[in-house]
Design brief:
Helix 2 packs across helix 3. This protein has eleven helices and five strands; from the N terminus they run E-E-E-H-E-E-H-H-H-H-H-H-H-H-H-H. It is an alpha+beta fold.
């Protein structure tokens, strides 16, 4: 299984892109959420990947973040949802927006995505409910660091993970972190302010 690719972006034409990895061109399909963040053709690029094996083809999908890939994989487990619909979900909403849709059980919002009818939308909400917490957690160590060697988690993302571990739900955490949205704060200070805000609420 190919976990990620790191190379040069040779070409991009939604939903297809071509990544040159040491002279080998990998053709991938990617959601618009990934395309928005892609560099110009010829620039270095790093993508998480997922391989779908069909009788007639092997299709490689690329994602700008591990949370996008986790959401894609979670959607594929749902009956009636294939790669095309999963790409449509990611193209129509960020991971954060999708989590809010699931939390709010907003069937109408999901049915606006091409290929998703009311029954499929209801199934997605029911089956993804338990995955919301897992999807909210930032990628840990290994692969993320391999894609971005110098990258370290931001204090905000570390605080988010800590609050998830404490049992808070993603929408509530987003609200609490707004009270600690000041540049230069340490992870500990952000958590302290967020918890203080939670007590007041």
């Amino acid at each position: 299984m190919i976990g990620f690719l790191k190379g040069r972006l040779a070409a991009k034409q939604p939903p297809m892109l071509l990544v040159d990895v040491n002279g080998v061109g990998y053709e991938l399909e990617a959601p618009m959420s990934t395309f928005y963040a892609l560099p110009a053709a010829g620039e270095p690029v790093a993508l998480f990947t997922h391989l779908v094996v069909r009788e007639d083809a092997h299709i490689l999908f690329g994602f700008g973040s591990d949370s996008e890939r986790r959401l894609f994989r979670g959607l594929l487990k749902i009956s009636g949802v294939g790669p095309k619909i999963a790409l449509g979900v990611l193209s129509g909403a960020s991971v954060e927006d999708f989590l809010r849709i699931i939390e709010a059980e907003d069937v109408a919002m999901l049915t606006r995505i091409p290929g998703i009818g009311r029954k499929t939308a209801e199934r997605i909400i029911i089956e993804m409910r338990d995955s919301v917490q897992k999807l909210s957690m930032p990628a840990a160590g290994g692969v993320a660091n391999a894609l971005n060697p110098g990258a370290t988690p931001s204090p905000q993302s570390e605080a988010f993970s800590a609050l998830i571990a404490l049992g808070y739900k993603p929408p509530e955490i987003t609200r609490l972190l707004k009270s600690a949205d000041e540049p230069g704060l340490s992870t500990t200070e952000i958590i302290r302010r967020a918890l203080k805000s939670a007590v007041k609420a």
